[in-house]
């Protein structure tokens, strides 16, 4: 005998066929379906709570797994307020059944929903730090690339700079010109990155069915931060261009 989750029912039976009384095979063991669980959806950890089959554990041990122990036991407290007392009672019962003395450590693990949530939060925090570190490294590499591009551009446009300064352009005008070019390059890169992130999120959501939540404020902040990166790394090249000697620049070939 067995009881099926809704996901298993959807995978084995079609056209709203009633599974009750039908026989399914779990490995080589035929099992008669005596019930179907009410759909529960996804758990807090992202696991499908309807993708399972419930059978007598003695049958599973003897006919399927060939073991004589239980790997996991799921328990439910009567209410949230009684979870601490229920956990204490479970620990006491397991220690008694495992014949553990007072000074011996537990040879089992008990996981409560609070512990799972804390573990998920810690994993999320570590992932956030990892992504922030990767993004910071990418910004530094991109900023150095922008600075090198601007320095090469100044070398190639030395005569142009000399002509501009000879006809009345000030150092501030030249510096603003190259600084604005650096900002435009970095801003275009930031916008391209935001678009790529949106497309990547949509792809993951459609293929892996992950829940993605995009924030317009974060996208705007990312674009502005990219522009600030251009200002920071473009300042030195623009300053160097503004300090060129107009006469030497006109003679440059």
Structural account:
The protein has 253 residues and is α+β, with helices and mostly antiparallel strands. It has 3 domains: 2-71, no CATH class; 77-110, no CATH class; 114-251, no CATH class. The chain has 8 helices and 4 strands. A hairpin with a 2-residue loop joins strand 2 and strand 3 (29-36). Helix 4 packs antiparallel against helix 6 (171-207), helix 4 (113-156) runs parallel beside helix 7 and helix 6 packs antiparallel against helix 7. The termini are far apart.
Return the average pLDDT rounded to an integer. 84
Rg calc: 33 Å
Question: What count of domains describes the coordinates?
Answer: 3
Largest sheet: 4 strands, mixed
Cα shape = elongated
Number of strands: 4
- Portion in strands: 5-15%
Q: So how many helices?
A: 8
H/E element sequence: EHEEEHHHHHHH
